[in-house]
Amino acid sequence: MKNLKIKTHRKNLFAAVALFSFAAFFTPESAFAQQSGISRTNLQRHNIEILGYETIQARIDFEPDSAFGMHSHPGEEIIYVLEGIFEYQIEGEKPVVLKAGEVLFIPAGKNHSAKNIGKVKASELATYIVRKDKPLLVMKK
Question: Coiled-coil segments, which residues (predicted)?
C-alpha cells in the first residue's frame, strides 16, 4: 500500500511539473523573465468579434542597453513608444529607430527584435491582435 502511494505521488508530481513547464514555456512572461533588464506588465486582455482572436495590451519596460531577441506573434503587433529610444529589427528589413510618441506595425508571424539604445529606461505599449489557440510569443530558434 505504501509503495502504491509513493508511485501515485510521483506520478502526480511528474504531471504537475510537466504542466507547469508547458505553461511557463508558452507564456510571454517566461520569455521576458529570461531577458535581463526587461519587464512586462499585462494591462488588459479581451475577446474580439473575430472568432478565435483576442486583443492583448502590455507595457514593456527595457533598462538601458537591454534587448529582446528575435521572436514572432500569431497575429499583428502595434507598438507605441511611451518613453526612451528603441531600435527595432524586423526580419528582412532595415532597422528602425523610434522615440517616445512614435509607432510601429509588425505583421503577423514576422520575426522581430527590440533594443533600448538610450541611456535611460525605455517603455512601449504593445497591442496584439492574435489567435487565442496559439502561444502569444514564439522565440526564433
Answer: none
